[in-house]
Write a structure and sequence with these properties.
The chain has helices at 14-27, 45-52, 79-82, 94-100, 104-116, 155-165, 184-188, 205-212, and strands at residues 2-7, 34-39, 58-62, 88-91, 120-125, 138-141, 172-176, 195-198. The protein has 215 residues and is an alpha/beta fold. An 8-stranded parallel β-barrel has the order 1-2-3-4-5-6-7-8, surrounded by 4 helices. The protein is globular. The chain starts with a strand and ends with a helix. The structure holds 2-phosphoglycolic acid. Residues 7, 142, 147-148, 176-179, 197-201 line the site of 2-phosphoglycolic acid.
């Protein structure tokens, strides 16, 4: 199985989301060995889910979840709220660690809350030194220098880092950092990379569709 995870970050308004979904639906044909996970901003999670998840092997994810379970935490979006609306949640993205001060201990709480409410974590690490919580099924390696810079890390280096992680055989190893429709195939030839976490190149549905087609 190859995973293609679209991380829209803090981009797109209602009309842009509608246009993306329309274009994606026109082009996408499900394949047994491809899993697509679209991670929109929270307000679009439900609508995108209704329109995309019947396409086959397309799932919705959130870009984060709260470290609080429920209660008086104005503005937080919890795993409990997202239960049934998303199948996955990105947890520990370097932008959350850097801009919102998320620490490893917060991330473990988030992982446990996600699992409690039936949401599979996509756990992000920046390098081999970041600890990985137990029983992570989708591990995303995203070197900070490669994110949003156009400087994707070489497949050789990515595989070297993977080797140091000693992942369980059932853990999917995802690479993220300036993956696009031109370089994705270079990683897939290694057999060591099980998919991609894609920011910039996922914003345009035709680019994202081309990327998926590289399998
Ligand atoms: P990028 O972002 O593809 O724009 O480099 C990847 C990510 O931050 O998940």
């Amino acid at each position: 199985m190859k995973y293609f995870i679209a991380n829209w970050k803090a981009n797109k308004n209602t009309s842009e989301v509608e246009a993306w979904i329309k274009s994606f639906k026109e082009n996408y044909r499900s394949k047994n060995d491809v899993c697509v996970i679209v991670c929109p901003p929270f307000p679009f999670v439900r609508g995108a889910g209704r329109q995309l998840t019947d396409l086959g092997n397309v799932f919705i994810g959130s870009q984060t979840i709260s470290s609080k379970e429920f209660g008086s935490y104005t503005g937080e979006v919890t795993a409990k709220t997202l239960e049934g609306l998303v199948s996955y949640s990105i947890i520990g993205h370097s932008e959350r660690r850097k801009n919102f001060g998320e620490k490893d201990e917060d991330l473990i709480i988030k992982v446990n809350l996600a699992k409690k409410y039936g949401i599979e974590p996509i756990y992000c690490i920046r390098d081999e030194k970041d600890p990985i919580p137990a029983e992570i099924k989708l591990l995303a390696y995203e070197p900070v220098a490669a994110i949003g810079t156009g400087l994707n890390e070489s497949p050789k280096k990515v595989v070297e880092v993977k080797k140091k992680l000693n992942l369980a055989p059932e853990t999917a190893f995802i690479y993220g950092g300036s993956v696009d429709e031109n370089n994705a195939k270079d990683y897939l030839t290694t057999q060591e990379v099980d998919g991609f976490l894609v920011g910039g190149a996922s914003l345009d549905p035709s680019r994202f569709f081309k990327l998926i087609s590289s399998v």
